[in-house]
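re: ur question from yesterday

yeah so i grabbed the chain u mentioned. its 434 aa long if i counted rite. heres the sequnce exactly as i have it in my notes:
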Amino acid sequence: MKLLKFCNIKNVFETRTAASLGIPFLGYHLISKNDFNRYDIIKRCIKELRSYYPTTWAILVTKEEDVNKIVSVINDIEFDGVQLHYSDSNTQAAALKSRFGSEFKIIQVVSQANSHFKPTQADYVLIDKSYVGGTGKQVPIEQISRIISNIGDVKTLLAGGISPSNIYQYLEIPVDGFDVQSAIKSDNSTDFENSDFSKMYSLARLLGYNLSLQSGQVGFATQDINQQNQELLGEAVKSNVDFFHIDISDGFVGKETDLSTTKKLITEICALNSHLRIQVHLFVSSQEKFEHIFREVGLAMCLLCEIFVHVNRDNYSNFSSEFIEKDNIYFGLDIKDVIDELFPWEQFIKEQLLVCLQSREHGDRIINLNRGLKLIRYSSKTQPVITLDRSVDDEVILNMGEVNLTNVVCGSYLRENITERYQIIKKYLNDKNK
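ran it thru and got these structure tokens back, copy pasting raw so excuse formatting
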């Protein structure tokens, strides 16, 4: 498999998508004034990688030639490597390698105009059209061959106009991987979104990368069963919650959802950033009701959306075996139904599962949760990633017997202070899983 580096990543949500795809290198620009205005955001991105995605390396992309300034930034943000965008970078590269050791990755750039330059300290040589980067202009194939011949036995990354439509032209060239920036750039690029999810995903898939299921995630019930919390969407986004949970009901549980309002909410989330993950929990009485809501809300248009259909003793028989086996459909269960064994819930367990706790008035709800989770884990050949729902708070996490492969969605618990309480739950969930 070819190595892949995505460059000019600008926020936590883009970082999560790329890391979930297993991309080895992510480039963070600290070059322009606007880049430095996002310094704290970049720092948050690298913290996210170090805490939850340790196999993805964070690379500082810089034109700074003062080694002391570079060292200061690397120490503060804790980058895993540096990419030096100027000619004759051997002096700086040697100093950085000496300062940070062999594990620190040095990427030296060789441009088409400076193809005679021979990097001496590089772990990887990046071949690009120019030192500007991000131009979308391709390096001629014959020039690539000459540069590779000149630099010798060093791993190489090719940049310059690499895209899903032309990458096939480069697969036989003896480079170790590709560096991509312009081809994943959003058509509506803003300070909040630089890359487009579908472009990033499409290119990664062509090279054999796939989104992996994540655990240890904390979501916010942006729309609960009573259609509350929508006014807190902006705060939830600002707090960088892992996903946005939306309840929809045909009246089977709770009151019937206003679908036009829900459609507007989903459209708003998708418009904010294409990397925002949405989890939809549908309480419907039948497959026909599901298909109606699916069409009305326009769920097919939401690219980063996971759909869970709630089943219980009253509706489980209203879904066909073909529907149950669909790749993009998962299911939700009440933990009490699992314990009571009143219907064959085992058939609804797939690689993901949503589990609802009993409500707070049940004093034994955490005991029953632990009992039910053991039954689910025992009954499944493929251990599912389980999302816990309904009145989840810090007490639930701290008293759970097993949190491996577990996510949680919180509503009322997070409402009081989303930023602080999200971090608390996230820390408890991941600390307990170590």
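noticed a couple things. The longest strand covers residues 105-111. also Residues 50 and 56 are 8 Å apart (CA to CA).
anyway ttyl
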